Each structure stands twice: as C-alpha cells, then as structure tokens.
Amino acid sequence: MKKKILIPTDFSKNAWNAIMYATELFKNIECRFYLLNAYSPTKHSRGELMTGTIETLAFEFEKNKSASGLSNVLEMLDFRGLNDKHEYQTISLQDDPLSAIQETIEKKDIELVVMGTKGASNYENKLFGSNTINVMENLRSSPILGIPLDVRLIHIKEIVFPTSFKTHYKRKELIHLVEIARLQNANICVLHVNDHPDLTIEQEENKLLLEECLEGASFSLHYIGGSNVNSSVKRFVESRGSDMVSFINRKHSFIDSVFSTPMVKELGMFSKVPLLVMHDTIH
Fold it and tell me: Tens digits of per-residue pLDDT, 50-84?
C-alpha cells in the first residue's frame, strides 16, 4: 500500500523545497503525494465586489491561477525526472488553508503532511508563515513535517525529541518518528530538560514506556539543565548540529507554549531545522 502524503503549496520557493525534501526523504518508499493549493479571492478584490458578475470573475481568476500553478509544479517534477515509486495528484480547493488541509486529510486518508515553514511574501492569502503556526497548532488529525526554506536533505543523522516524561506515550503516536529514524539510520536523542534530573516514579514509568515505543530505532537519553525549555532545546540542537526536532503537541503540554503568540519569535530555532509535530491520539 502506498504511503499517502499531503504537501500544501502556495507555489513559493519554500513550498517547492518542501516537495523536494519529501520526495528525497521517502525516495525508497512507495508514495502517493497529494499537492494541494487552497485559493480564494484576495482581500482587495473581495472589497471591490459590487455585482455577482465581478464576484464570479474574481473566483474564476483565482481558480485558474491555482490550476495553472499546480500544472507548473507537475511539469517541474517531470523535468527533474520522476521516481518510479512515486505518483502525484493535484488538488485545488476554494477554502482557507487549514480547512482545505483538514478536508483533504479526511477524504484521502492522509498519513503525513509536509509543508514549508514560510510562504510567498507577495501572496495576500499566503499559505505559510503565520498560517504554518496555525496549522501546526490546530491540525490534530495528522502529523506535520515543517521544512525551512534553505534546508536540503543530505542525510539525517540525529533527531531531537524533547520530553518532560510527565505524560505516557503510545506507539502509534510515534510511528512516523520511528519510521524516519529507520529510513535515515538516524539516532533519536530523547532530551529531558529540567533543573532537577531525578525523575519521579511516574516519570520513570513513562520513560520506560517511551523506550518501548521507540523499539526498532536507534535512540539515546540526554539530560540538560534549564528552566526555559525552548531556549534549552535550541541550545542543544545548535551545539550538536542536529538535523530535526520532533515532539508531541499535546494540549497543556510542557512545550505547548512554543505555539503561543509570545513565543512565536522562538520558532526562529526552526528556521534551519525541520520540525516534526506529532499529536496525541485522544480526540
């Protein structure tokens, strides 16, 4: 069975880079990539709508631009030479990015979303940038792999997985982390940030459960002192030159604040490192 991967695109360089990263990451896996573009009239054209005819023309313009853009992406992929293990389908939806992504995940039984972390600045309704944070925080039905503009996949040697050991884990929550680690023969660095390295009985039990969930992949345990989780993780990643950061975005989790408005600037740590955001399986 082919792995189903959704790649939203606003036709920016970052979106194209996300496609290139995904196709390289899964080059040896049978995959069906769904290339999605969400469109709607710009705020400017919407504000000038006076009659049904103008409204129709505005929507037709955006619809045609979306179809043309997706066609160009397919041509670019064909020019680069297609992988026999990969197939591509394009989807053009009149909707906001998050809703379009959610609808496609539901209809196509998507397993993973791969997207750029920043979109085309000249797009009024750009798909990424601030919308990336919105999607990563609110999309609970699929894990998301965010790819920065300048990141090229050569070889993933190390994936950092920050954890407090305060919540229990399920194997199905971590399946994509384990899969990527195995595909790349990478090591998963389980990173515990705390000024007090000693674990409670409950934390010890959760640590053992996590180790069971990571069976089949190479992993190691690391402890680092610090009261600010985000800056500590950033320091760890930069000092080691890690290739990816991954965590489970639970509601009310210790790292949940990374998506809150005051913490947006700290997402700068992911401007050079791909970010795999997984979710708990309790809905």
Answer: 555 766 777 788 889 999 999 999 999 999 888 99
Model's pTM, two decimal places? 0.86
Give the span between the Cα atoms of 22 and 151, in whole angstroms: 12
Structural domain that includes position 114: 3-147
pLDDT at res. 123? 46
Number of domains in the chain: 2
Return the amino acid letter for 30.
Answer: E
State how far the Cα of 20 lies from the Cα of 79, in Å rounded to an integer. 13
Q: What pLDDT, on a 0 to 100 scale, did the predictor assign at position 232? A: 84
Tokens of 245: 């950061």
Contact between 48 and 152 under an 8 Å Cβ cutoff? The reply is no
Looking at residue 161, its amino acid is: F
Residues of the chain with pLDDT under 70: 41-52, 54-55, 119-130, 251-271, 281-283
Q: Do residues 16 and 43 share a domain?
A: yes
CATH of the domain at 172: 3.40.50.620
Identify whether residues 10 and 100 lie together within a single domain: yes
Check whether residue 143 and residue 168 sit in a common domain. Answer: no
In a domain, 229, yes or no: yes
